[in-house]
Design goal:
The structure holds 2 protein chains of 2 kinds. By secondary structure, chain A is mostly beta strands. Chain A has one domain (22-150). Helix content of chain A is 7%, strand content 44%. Chain A is built from 1 helix and 12 strands; from the N terminus they run ββαββββββββββ. A 5-stranded antiparallel β-sheet of chain A has the order 10-9-8-11-12, with no helix packed on it. Chain B is an alpha/beta fold. Chain B has a domain at 4-119 and 224-242: 3-Layer(aba) Sandwich (Peroxisomal Thiolase, Chain A, domain 1). Chain B has helices at 24-39, 63-66, 87-100, 120-127, 129-137, 154-170, 174-188, 203-207, 236-242, 262-265, 276-289, 294-297, 309-317, 326-331, 348-351, 355-371, and strands at 4-11, 48-52, 78-81, 106-114, 211-213, 216-217, 226-235, 247-256, 300-302, 386-393, 398-405. Chain B has a 9-stranded mixed β-sheet with strand order 3-2-4-7-1-8-11-10-9. In chain B, strands 5-6 form a two-stranded antiparallel sheet. The longest helix of chain B is centred in the middle third of the chain and has 17 residues, at 154-170. Mean pLDDT of chain B is 90; it is low at 141-147 and 260-267. The chains are: A mainly beta, B alpha/beta. Chains A and B meet through helix 1, strand 8, strand 9, strand 10 and strand 12 of A and helix 4, helix 5, helix 6 and strand 5 of B.
Chain lengths: 151, 411
Amino acid sequence: MEGLMGSYFTPAVPMDFGYNYRLGAYLERYLDGLKEKKILGVRCSGCGKVLVPPRMYCGGCRLRLEEWVELGTEGELVEFTVGHVSMSKGRLSQAEPFTIGLVRPDGAALPLLARIRGADPAALRPGMRMRAVWDPDAENEYLVLSHYEPA
Amino acid sequence: MRDVAIIGVGYCPVFVSKRNDVSIPEMISEAVWSAYRNCGLTPEDMDAFTFGNMHTFEGVNMPHLWSADHITALGKPIMRIATGGTTGMSAFHCAYYHVASGLYDTVMTVTFEKHSEGDAQVGLAGIITPEIMTMLSLGIDLTGGSGMCGLGGGSAGGISFQATSYLHRSGAGIEHIDAQAALERRNAAKNPYAHLKDPECTAEKIAATPMVSYPIRFGHICPTTDGATVCILASAEKAAKVADKAAWIHAVANCTSDPTTGNLIEGLITDPAEQMSCQIAAKKAYERAGIEDPKKEIDLVEIYNGFAHQTLMYLEKLGLCEAGEAHRMLERGETEIDGRLPVNASGGVVSTNSIGTSALNRVTECALQIMGKAEGGHQVPKKVRKALAHGWGGLMQYNTVTILGDAPLKR
């Protein structure tokens, strides 16, 4: 587990330790919605904004959010980036370039972070119309909303 | 509240990738004794200590207690603070509260990071855990320990949205980020306590570095640095007795926005480059310092820029120029060491990033410039009466501001 290497003390840290976090009522309902190909948000009774992914409180108004809203599966590209590096178990490596964007679903005040596929990054522009692509057979429910592509 | 002065600054002798010759507390002690030497005080003068370093990066649970004897704190009050990139300035603010409140007359802030002995990427993967929960719900697969790199390149991936938004809204181009990075690496060459030094650096040289996560190139990104910084604060009475030179604290302020989706869009804020918390903290600091027009009254700035576009973006967010004007100031040479408003004469965080020290270094660099004590050729030629130090940290949604002056604040 540990030893001396040269003049260093090099304890091995057991990295397979797992944390165990509860998603919470709001994200659980959001994930249930994804299984039905629905993107759910919550509307603030103060500012009227629809927040997605849903959360319990509006930070700006300091109000508890109660009104659930179904959002459009199309939306607007806000910003995007192209990644060239990936990491697995603490190791960085060069990756095939992949595109990630912020997509604001129709009816929402906030954008979602999502993979962008089916588009040449050079052709992407903020403000472009996008549509959700679903993968009902995804291994994890959070991957059912697979990615967005240009509408 | 009492007036508080910075009367001493201490750095470890070098800021480099690997300090193989010393342990963590040994390295910290170098900065502590440097600060004592620089202001002529001794450990008997010190009433209390505040201590800052990043959580999880070295995997050391209580570094402030481990190093208590090395920093001359045995038998004295101490508290450790960790707020992310802003850690150093938060620890400094805490020391200010100690003295301004009247509880203590002389307080030392001790900060360090020894990146080479830990793993910053593993640290970041842990730090952003709450956000991983959100990202999972968004359909980004971050399993398999990919952490922030699921975003396309560590924290560079997380910050790329901020950079693209800044570029789209300001009219600046990626070539301006290249030029800003080059300017700071040249400044760093004149700072004995900087890490990445390149006296001949050009925008073209930066532009030739690999793209990590558009528009962030390798040359736009800070290094991981081993280093320690110490700052000694004193009441006006103590300063009058012991200090030949001092920089006076006119204002401190900090502000957070929402961390739930913080790395990317700051919660309710939909512009990734809005940095609302920076704007609020700056406004509060100007009020406290009695500054009506920061564009005219601030003589020098040190900005926390883990990534080179942030120097330009924060100049605008701090109200030191109009929106869309920062890259024009860069083009006109106004932010150079001998310019109208020197920005990051030290080389900035993009040249030196031992994270626990980085936000404190913004303050100590402003203080040294006011005292005329900046070494190695990076002392600015103009007289610095008021200087602003900025810190950026938390989950990317937290900002700190400190304003220093060459005399106590007229109240």
